Records
---
Amino acid sequence: MFKAQTYLSRRHDLRTHLDSGIAVFMGNDESPMNYADNPYHFRQDSSFLYYFGLNTAGLAGIVDVDEGKDYIFGNDLTVEDFVWMGHHPPLKEQARKAGIENTGTILDLEKFLKKAVTAGRQIHVLPQYRTDNKIKLSNWLDIKPNETQKTESVALIKAVVAQREIKSDEELAEIEKAVNTSVDMHVAAMQMVQPGIMESEIAAKVQEIPVRDGGNIAFPIIATVHGETLHNHYHGNQLQGGDMFLLDCGAETAMGYAGDLSSTMPVSASFSERQREVYNIVLASHNAAIEMLAPGLPFIDVHYESCRVIVEGLNDLGLMMGNVEEAIQLGAHAMFFPCGVGHQMGLDVHDMENLGEVYVGYAGKPKSTQFGIKSLRLAKPLVPGMVLTIEPGIYFIPSLIDMWRAEKRFTDFINYDNLEAYKDFGGIRNEEDFVITSDGYQLLGKKKPKTIEDVEKQKSTRS
Ligand code: GLY
Ligand code: MN
């Protein structure tokens, strides 16, 4: 974790955002796979990590705005627990590392919160995404488990988003570490991809690298010849010459900071002419989006510019036609690009996604419900210190093509006859990570191969 001062000043800043009451931060508990003693790899809640830094299961933190005190609650492990799980420092000792003197057991927390409820104090809680934490809060705050959203505090959500979305220098150093490991994952895959190998072999190799570096994967690995499926976690295909292979994976450091990169490469030694054409449209869209990045610019403009380059390229290929602006306005391009051009990244790979897109990506403004643009996670103006991904793509999704064709959707803009030949193409995405600076942007981490020449060169360097 960072030094205690980091957590002290983050909690101090949080107080300046809240008028009164107490803010409750639920740490995560162990999450069993198939029985209680067989848990998944532990992952702490990111907002708890941000304000309290402790990477231990079963804790909760409180920032008492009225009294100017901070607390950590949790039960110390017993010697019998140490027999199985090794020695754990007492909570008092752990809490000091976060600059906190006030600690108590989970029973103490329950009493603290029940007293606060009785006294009618304002209790700020973030949206909960784990059922066990919903049940705990329902008991402590005397509400039904399916009504914990009633405790969600917009003031706290806005305060947390305002703080977490501006990365400090020490956070940026952690993120760069994560991205550097992520680049190693992608280069390793480029050197392995060849006809005959299984997707699972590449996924296994790629997973080894962040674990070796002391961290973990930041999200389930996408390593697939069916890159047209946006979040494809199936790894059972054998790679065949002529296929495209899409890798979307990133490392998480031991402190929980993420990297998130995507690469697309031919399974054969080099790209075919058709693959080259589509790859270069995606690359042009990617580079156009990056070049725009600057503080003050609404990210939705970056998204639309990346769409524009894609539609122009698809028009040139004869897969789309007609007026580019109109096609985008109406959403015809979403056949090929049904998602957003990027998202914030930090302690979560989709940073703060559980706090609500409307606050994280739209500054409280409503978002479009149109297919495609509705999946844009970030639209609001960029601010120095924001970390985000740029990841446009072109996807040929057979079921979507068939459905839109049958429904005669956007026949003025989509050339369905020409598209038939692309139904086995797959998908292409490139992704890199950036921080917004006072006068533009900076690439995070070392460079990942992304031009056709660089990818083919890596592929010729067998591991
Ligand atoms: N890397 C997965 C995603 O951005 O959705
Ligand atoms: Mn991403």
---
Amino acid sequence: MTARIIDGKAFAVALSKAVASSTAAIKGAHGFTPGLAVVLVGEDPASSVYVASKARETVAAGMNSFEHKLPADAPESELLDIIARLNADEAVDGILVQLPLPKHIDTNKVLGAISPDKDVDGFHVINAGRLATGQSSLVPCTPWGSMLLLKATLGSLSGLEAVVVGRSNIVGKPIAQLLLAADCTVTIAHSRTRDLAEVCRRADILIAAVGRPEMIRGDWIKQGATVIDVGINRVPAPEKGEGKTKLVGDVAFAEAKEVAGAITPVPGGVGPMTIASLLANTLTAATRRRGLPEPTDFADACARLMA
Ligand code: NDP
């Protein structure tokens, strides 16, 4: 059996289209343009590329993009001042502080300073708490995008055994909460889990969010399972030439696709969904803050566009 490959790239294009058309409808009906502010501290090359593509895609979706760049040695107080200004700015619906932050800045303090209603990364403790208690919240982008892929692949997830490998606040824990909310039976595994391979073999849905290249082997996967590989790892690729590298996931893809029912590739799976999910969150934040009806059900809109 060879798994169906879940095309996150195509799905992200569909989601971005759904967001753009919803943005246009909201602009037409209510006369405002949603705005996303991204704050970057320092010049980490990967973060700079990521921030530039967020800005490009925000504008492509018909929203306003605001960028704030601070030098790597900017004091924490300067970053907190910018966040306070953005919290108060009516033109800003979403605020994202690009992580990681330099070591002299307290990340939790910074994330906690963002207004929960504008917290489009969904990392504020208020949003984490709302998610955990089943209340309306802004949900972290990568977990939310992963759930859209799962729902489009499986339809109802009710009653399925889900195993999430990884328990970070930004990926593992929120994905586990979303799976629980979708009526899965959820196990969260981590570096202290005993016999991880055996735990993974129970999974109808296996989520890998570890950050270790190809750690999850084909024989850890139940026949027909759906595998979502969140991991992004850069590894040497001598087959491409000296000094070359390539991206791989946390799952040994070539082995896993012979066993799984469906699987996300790396690259081209979960990764492309993240920015599209961020734009969807910005639109949701914009409508909620103004007391307007929620934008389209993006899961349905995407499924229709993908059909
Ligand atoms: P973290 O490093 O914060 O968390 C990794 C988790 O994996 C931890 O809970 C850790 O356990 C667990 N872990 C580490 N080693 C093992 C092991 N040998 N066996 C079992 N569990 C283990 O990573 P993130 O959650 O931030 O990211 C995970 C991956 O997802 C990374 O590759 C990252 O690049 C990628 N990512 C991709 C995104 C995207 O697609 N857009 C967005 C965000 C992340 P413990 O808690 O016990 O230490």
